[in-house]
Amino acid sequence: MIIDRRIKKTRDALSDALLSLLPTTPLNKITIKSIVDIANVSRSTFYVHFDDVFDLYDQTVNELLAGLVNQITADYPDLS
């Protein structure tokens, strides 16, 4: 599936914003406002891509895990 670079950039900015907040703020206390302020995108843009903070979290974790699996299978092809 091909994803437009602008979409990827926006989604990455939102994920990065969430990841920057997680070390100091519990997930259930993170607000969409704090995420969009850090990512420098509008609230409506957030909702184009995600349903809520938990959806962003789930998709971010899944993307990080997929990247980790890809790296491991590339480094150790016998494991796949």
TrEMBL record:
Protein name as it appears in the record: TetR/AcrR family transcriptional regulator
Q: Which UniProt keywords apply?
A: DNA-binding
| Native source organism of the sequence | Weissella confusa
DNA-binding positions = 31-50
Ranges for domain HTH tetR-type:
8-68
Q: Name one GO molecular function term.
A: DNA binding
